[in-house]
Specification:
- The structure is a single chain.
- This protein is an alpha/beta fold.
- The protein has 3 domains: 145 residues, Rossmann fold (3-Layer(aba) Sandwich), CATH 3.40.50.720; 143 residues, no CATH class; 81 residues, Rna Polymerase Sigma Factor, Chain: A.
- The protein has 17 helices and 11 strands.
- It has a 7-stranded parallel sheet, sandwiched between helices.
- α1 links the parallel β1 and β2.
- α10 crosses α14.
- It is globular, with a radius of gyration of 21 Å.
- 39% of the residues are buried.
């Protein structure tokens, strides 16, 4: 049986790992790749994997490269919003992998769910902001959802055949980022280059900064709460510096499970794709040594002040998640552009997320994607001229 696959955001780190997982697998055929701007890499991927349809979001790149793709017998489409998928795909594909970063990944998620039997998502922003919308579309189209972020894939794998009432506690593991052995006071004036230097993973700039502040783990906490239908009390965050353990689950009956693997995204992706022959022979002694040096430790609010946001997370679905993501995105990009200090990310975020103007939306919930888009604009307009660059030391 040939499994047809679509990869959205194929030129990013998750998309590249997905392609690596499928490489030389004869029973997997990629029918569509998409990218935002990296047209040269997209072209190379299409040639290597014999892909006949590609989508580029950048209109100028589309006009410039359309003829070049045509010469290679590849149909280049302009934008996921414009493409007629029903004409392109006669039947549901086996897998669609959505690795588009940011809230921009939400619309493609909703558009492709009806066209795939299984959708594999690494886009935490869309899951956090719109899980209630996504879940309805999944049920309507009888499409199976599999998370492929390492932590959420691990939880999914560990509780797959378990009843929800048997779950006691789930720990999401965090590496602690590049500043694990430093105090906040020591890094308040750090530059982007240092904050981007993740000790274990090779990631994009935005997610690397989120890892350093622990915001990425806050997002994962909210994501896990939603997609696995958990309460806040059932979730906690714990630091495991080597990123070898990805989730720990406590069950009733005093049973504890954890899932471990190397810091290689092809592992959760290939397993989600049910590719079992990917990994090389395991060095058992190597992994026993890793288990013997886990160094689990509890993160503190003093070192990671943004963890206090967890107390504000509503139990019920609301605009809180959209507002939180919008504020954080805005601040991180300003830091990466050297417009605010590292310390300013923390102070501004905590100030804005508690502001009376935004808090009034925490009891309301979006009904559709347009509500989410409007809330993003409302939030941006509110904070845009109120951001302060805190340069003074603690």
């Amino acid at each position: 049986m040939i499994h047809k696959v679509i990869i959205l955001g194929s030129t990013g780190s998750i998309g590249s790992s997905s392609l690596k997982s499928i490489f030389k697998k004869k029973n997997y055929k990629i029918v569509l790749l998409s990218a935002n701007k990296n047209i040269n890499k997209l072209l190379k991927q299409c040639i290597i994997y014999n892909v006949k349809n590609a989508v580029i979001e950048d209109e100028n790149k589309f006009k410039e490269f359309k003829t070049i793709f045509k010469r290679k017998k590849i149909k280049l489409h302009s934008g996921l919003k414009k493409i007629n998928l029903n004409r392109l795909l006669k039947y549901k594909v086996s897998y669609c992998i959505n690795s588009i970063s940011g809230i921009e990944g939400l619309e493609p998620t909703l558009k492709f769910i009806p066209l795939t039997k299984k959708i594999l998502i690494a886009n935490k922003e869309s899951l956090i902001c719109a899980w209630n919308i996504i879940s309805r579309v999944l049920i309507k189209n009888k499409t199976q959802f599999i998370p492929i972020d390492s932590e959420h894939f691990s939880i999914w794998k560990l509780i797959k055949n378990e009843k929800l009432e048997n779950l006691e506690k789930i720990y999401l593991t965090a590496s602690g980022g590049p500043f694990l052995k430093k105090t906040l006071k020591q890094v308040i004036n750090t530059k982007p280059k240092a904050a981007l230097n993740h000790p274990n993973w090779k990631m994009g700039k935005k997610i690397s900064i989120d890892s350093s502040t622990m915001m990425n783990k806050i997002f994962e906490f909210i994501e896990a709460k939603k997609i696995f239908n958990l309460t806040k009390n059932q979730l906690s965050i714990i630091i495991q510096p080597s990123s070898f353990i990805h989730a720990i689950v406590f069950f009733k009956g005093k049973i504890i499970k954890f899932l471990a693997h190397d810091t290689d995204m092809t592992i959760p992706i290939s397993n989600a794709l049910e590719i079992r022959d990917y990994q090389k022979k395991i060095s058992y002694s190597k992994y026993i040594n890793k288990i013997n040096s886990l160094e689990l430790q509890k993160p503190t609010i003093k070192q990671y002040p943004l963890l206090s946001i967890l107390d504000l997370v509503p139990e019920n679905y609301s605009y809180f998640e959209t507002i939180l993501i919008t504020i954080n995105d805005h601040l991180v990009y300003k830091f990466l552009s050297n417009k605010i200090s590292y310390y300013s990310i923390h102070l501004n975020l905590l100030k804005f997320i508690k502001s009376p103007f935004l808090r009034k939306y925490y009891k309301l919930k979006p009904k559709n994607i347009y509500d989410i888009k409007r809330m993003i604009e409302v939030t941006k307009n509110h904070i845009n001229n109120k951001i302060i660059n805190y340069e003074k030391k603690i």
